[in-house]
């Protein structure tokens, strides 16, 4: 059987970098070269400060970089010397979760390899299987044709996104009835037919894969004249957008129907904890809706750079073609206590563990009163009695915490956004 001795991976991003680093570590006899046209990214991979944050990744890279793992901008040479080129030869979709990518690569539920049903295609499949068999049991390596492989990737992410949108839809019902979505999720999750994974209600899913893959599925269904199927999966995206808008409207409503000129602290900007990735993060959209209302945002995230936050919020679709408003309304801080100083409300958008350990006595003393906490990730459930005893007004996803809100007289003009606004996300080519 043909043996692979040199691998080239095109793209040194969130997938290519970690995947090929683990392959290099697990297969010391194979030379792995990761190439990219982005010189600064390659320079970062060759430095002590990697371009992405992922628990355990730095240790993996440092264990084999310079021995059998290389990062380069010399794409032509790497392709020419390679026995296998990732991405362009086979369909080998990744099923990585950011924040646990290294563990997912080393202990995968399955490895899926698709290829042409030709002699050459089958030969390539067997060669790649041999690479993964260095550390993955054979029974976990699935081989299929190319279409099955690609659709499996789209369907897997669509099903996961669907579960999140499903529990988020129930969270709205819980808030209206007095139920607790965490209790509901636990009850239905104990049904073995359903299971308890991805039943955590929140401000909505983010990341590079879920929305992209669901919309790809929608587009594929429309192109193949399956409009009912396309509409079904589009609702997953629409519900996610509805949850974000609903949460933003709740903030505005609780702050006496206006946030214009008010300081609001956002804790967390990455789309989930243990990653610095902000792609499609719900924090971006919560920020947009609050900026639309004139709120002054103070943002803190332990891993996301200030430049990235400003870049995300300055995109035309977020800044309403007015990037200047970002400099007027947004301040990025490096200290969570500084971010909360003199704030009307703090909003938890990412479930970083550190947010459970903050000194909320200190935070409350330095906030304007009444002081509000909007927990979009349900990370402070265990602290509710203490927080209420301090004087915080608490609003969270899928549960009524504050029995009665502080009364107010509605302003003559309401907020620009409403939870019932038609979502703008549509299937794209």
TrEMBL record:
Its EC number is 1.1.1.22. Pathway: Nucleotide-sugar biosynthesis; UDP-alpha-D-glucuronate biosynthesis; UDP-alpha-D-glucuronate from UDP-alpha-D-glucose: step 1/1. It is an enzyme of class 1 (oxidoreductase). InterPro entries: 6-PGluconate_DH-like_C_sf, NAD(P)-bd_dom_sf, UDP-Glc/GDP-Man, UDP-Glc/GDP-Man_DH_C, UDP-Glc/GDP-Man_DH_C_sf, UDP-Glc/GDP-Man_DH_dimer, UDP-Glc/GDP-Man_DH_N, UDPglc_DH_euk. Pfam families: UDPG_MGDP_dh, UDPG_MGDP_dh_C, UDPG_MGDP_dh_N. Residues 265-382 form the UDP-glucose/GDP-mannose dehydrogenase C-terminal domain. One of its GO terms (cellular component) is nucleus. GO terms for biological process: glycosaminoglycan biosynthetic process; UDP-glucuronate biosynthetic process. GO terms for molecular function: NAD binding; UDP-glucose 6-dehydrogenase activity. Keywords: Allosteric enzyme, Carbohydrate metabolism, NAD, Oxidoreductase. The active site is at residue 209. NAD(+) binds at residues 11-16, 36, 41, 98, 209-212, 279. It catalyses: UDP-alpha-D-glucose + 2 NAD(+) + H2O = UDP-alpha-D-glucuronate + 2 NADH + 3 H(+). Substrate binds at residues 94-98, 153-157, 193, 200-206, 271-272, 377. Involved in the biosynthesis of glycosaminoglycans; hyaluronan, chondroitin sulfate, and heparan sulfate. PANTHER family: UDP-GLUCOSE 6-DEHYDROGENASE (PTHR11374:SF59), UDP-GLUCOSE DEHYDROGENASE/UDP-MANNAC DEHYDROGENASE (PTHR11374). Homohexamer. Belongs to the UDP-glucose/GDP-mannose dehydrogenase family. NCBIfam families: NDP-sugDHase. This is UDP-glucose 6-dehydrogenase. It comes from Oreochromis niloticus.
